[in-house]
Structure formats: C-alpha cells, structure tokens
C-alpha cells in the first residue's frame, strides 16, 4: 500500500481516491478533486475523532463533489482515525490511547498518534492554501454549531467568518490541528457540528454550505454563494473535571450563564457532591458533556463569551 499521497496538481480534471499508510498500521482514505483550471489547494480533514459522524459524512460527500468548474484541488482526508471510527472510540485512537487533536506537532519516532500528527504537519499542511478540520460533539457531547480559529491568525478569523457557523471561537492553546497549521501560515478553521453519535442531513448540509462559501472565497469556484448570517466571535471557557464522578450539568446548550452561577456538579454514585462548578465568565453554553460519568481532567462544558 502506498505511503504517500499522489501529486495534488496535475493540470487535468480528475477524481482520484485510495487508501494510504503514511504510518505503520494506519489506513487513511483520501480523495482528490482537481478542477479544470489551475488554482489553490484546500485541505479538508475529518474523523480526527472517529465518532463525530456529521463531519465525517460531510467530508465523504465532499470527496464526491463535481470537479467541473473548480479551480485548483480539494484534498479530502475524511476518516483520519480509521481505528477509532471502527471501534466507535471516544476522543482517542485505540492503537495508543492518545487524542490526535492534542498531539500536534507530533513526533517522527513517537507513538502511533504522534506519528500521524507529524505526518500531517510535514506532508499535508504544507501543501494547503487553506485548511478545514471538521469535527462535532463526540459520542458523549452535545453542542450547537460553532467554529474555532487560532486567535493570532487574522486570515483564519476571516475564513471562520466566511465559513459562517453562527459562533466563531478565537482559540488559544496549542497541540491541536488548526494551531499546528496556523503556525505554518495556513488559514485554518475547525468546524463543530452535530454530536452524540447522531448525524443529520441538516448538519451535513451546514458543513457543506460552509465549505462552498470557503471555495468561493478562495476563488476556487465562481459561485455566487449567499453570505452567512452574522457570525459572533467569542472566547470559550472550558472547565474540566477536578475529580472523576457523575456529572450533573445545571445548564443546557444555548443557556445564558452569569459569573459565579452554578453550572453543574460532580457527585458520587451515592449522591454526595464532590465539586460544584461556578461560572468563571458570563456568556452562553455552546456545548456540554452529555454522559453521566466523567473522568478527571475531561472537559465538562464550554461557555462562549462575546469579544466584539
Ligand atoms: Zn472532535
């Protein structure tokens, strides 16, 4: 099996797909859609988390998009983590128990997941003129659609607004896909749609509409796409569980939150309160952990606070 991607630009319109093994044990499906005119390369990944189905289905459909009228090439890697997809794994790859979206920039001689991150950084991101990483709530998470962009990248912010999900999170931190691509100077957006292991036509359509707006923005199509409705730019506060226990959120998706307000509790199986979580910032709940159990260190929910 091939270990490298084929050339992205050949000058001939085509659909090409296959499976590559850039890291021993990985089987990564890829698809190339090259248009009939020269142009940039849009890289789209999904399935970094193997159970975020709305985003995976959207990427699979993008792989079958017509090449006619397209300038440049779309590279789609719709299921980056095939082991996790097949195992219906939450957050991590079964091969090494690591979360790919925390492993960037990865390591050449690291664990399975570290080597996958390294491959993306060395071989894939450098070929991109723009990068979209499609996610959603995992099996254990509910959310309303939002995007994230690396907050220091103006081009990424612009791309998030073009993509058009109603909320765009100016994200700090490091170790995740769009941070790594952003550091290479690539405009990068991570989109979150769907959750709880459910995929819907509406969610898939929302992602595909955002991708078409990005293609028009990059002048890869001449389509007159409808601009998205107003996008609210926010920062997001994500408290994590101080202890393992049962998680009782006091807020639902979309609820307003005041500073100091109780947003949830961790309890023992006998109902004793282990921790009460108070809101650090005022804002609105963008996602929550929906499982009754939470492990120490896992994210409980996300509160978005408008910054403009
Ligand atoms: Zn994800």
Outline the structure in words:
- It is built from 6 helices and 17 strands.
- The model has no long low-confidence stretch (mean pLDDT 96).
- The radius of gyration is 19 Å and the shape is globular.
- The protein is α/β, with parallel strands linked by helices and 308 residues long.
- Helix 1 crosses helix 6 (201-217).
- The strands form 2 sheets. Strands 1, 2, 3, 4, 5, 6, 7, 8, 9, 10, 12, 15 and 17 form a 13-stranded mixed sheet that branches. A 4-stranded antiparallel sheet has the order 14-13-11-16, with no helix packed on it.
- The protein has 2 domains: 14-230, Aminopeptidase; 236-306, RNA polymerase II/Efflux pump adaptor protein, barrel-sandwich hybrid domain (OB fold (Dihydrolipoamide Acetyltransferase, E2P)).
- 47% of the residues are buried.
- Bound molecules: zinc ion.
- Zinc ion binds at residues 48-49, 52, 135.
- Zinc ion is lined by residues 48-49, 52, 135.
CATH uppermost class of the largest domain: Alpha Beta
Principal-axes geometry comes out as: globular
Distance between the termini: 50 Å
Number of strands: 17
Radius of gyration of CA atoms, rounded to a whole number: 19 Å
Please tally the helical runs, counting DSSP H or I stretches of 4 or more residues.
Answer: 6
Arithmetic mean of pLDDT: 96
Helical content, roughly?
A: 10-25%
The figure for the number of domains is 2
Low-confidence stretches: none
Fold-level CATH name of the largest domain: Aminopeptidase
Instruction: Name the CATH superfamily assignment of the largest domain.
Output: Zn peptidases
Question: Which class best fits the helix and strand makeup?
Answer: alpha/beta
Largest sheet: 13 strands, mixed
Cofactors and ligands: zinc ion
Question: Could you give the order of the helices and strands?
Answer: EEEHEHHEEEHEHEHEEEEEEEE
**CATH hierarchy: architecture of the largest domain:** 3-Layer(aba) Sandwich
**Percent strand:** 25-35%
